[in-house]
Amino acid sequence: MTWRQWAASRRLKPGDGRELQRFRWWQLPLRSLFWLRLPGTGGHGDVRVHAVDVRHWARLDNSRIRAHLFLDGRHVAESKLPAIFPVDGGVIEVAMSNWGIRRCHYRPLDGQPRQLTPDPASAEGRRARFGARHPGLSRAIGTGSVLLLVIGVGLNLLQLAEPVSQIPPVAVRVGTFESPLHLPIWLNLALGGGAVLASMERALRLRHSPLLDTAGH
Fold it and tell me: Residue 198: exposed, middle, or buried by beta-carbon count in 10 A (0-12, 13-18, 19+)?
């Protein structure tokens, strides 16, 4: 067992057997729900249905967000994030970024990890359905999200380099730097807002880059 798996096992708690609630439209900004169907042990046609339910509103009261695992509609386990849930033939890994779900994958003991299927009513499910119906436009939006982050992060770092270089210990070691750009406040705010929207859009597709999405925050 790796250290990461050991730490995840310490966060794992047994479930209380409650029934999984159906996704409601008003939960769109505050809940994520993913599904995984795995073969059961009862022979041909036996399927076990797993669901991972994450309630984002825990942030509103400063408590730790938890992922909840349901098996055939009943609550069987919960864990603070990042979570690793043991299931038949492998594990389900769940992690969250500042903007939404970063990872919700089934990692089999043999084979490649695969993403769980988002509930059609969830924000992630609606984004996936939009991508399936309009693949060209979806790719264009995805490309635009990356460009917004690259431009926003790059310009902010360029402007930030000047005041940082004027700190005496830094100036003595590497010299001072004068930024060629000094954008107005309204444009910096607009770039920041665009970076936030881009990171949110990428989170709906479970896309995450430690450099871009973290810096965009």
Answer: buried
Question: Is the alpha carbon torsion for 48, 114, 105, 101 positive or negative?
Answer: negative
Among residues 53, 58, 25, 36, the alpha carbon closest in space to that of 126 is found at 25
Q: Which of 52, 46, 188, 71 is closest to 115 using CA atoms?
A: 52
Q: From CA 138, how far away is CA 127, in angstroms rounded?
A: 9
Mean pLDDT, the chain cut into blocks of 10 residues (217 residues total): 79 94 93 93 79 79 80 96 92 90 93 94 95 94 91 76 70 68 78 86 86 57
Query: In sequence order, what are the residues at sequence separation of 6 or more whose Cβ sits closer than 8 angstroms to the Cβ of residue 36?
Result: 49, 50, 51, 52, 87, 92, 106, 116, 117
Of 92, 146, 139, 82, which is closest to residue 115 (Cα–Cα)?
Answer: 92
**56: nearest Cα among 84, 33, 85:** 33
- The answer to whether the Cα torsion of 162, 168, 171, 176 is positive or negative is positive
Please, what sign has the CA dihedral across residues 139, 141, 145, 146?
positive
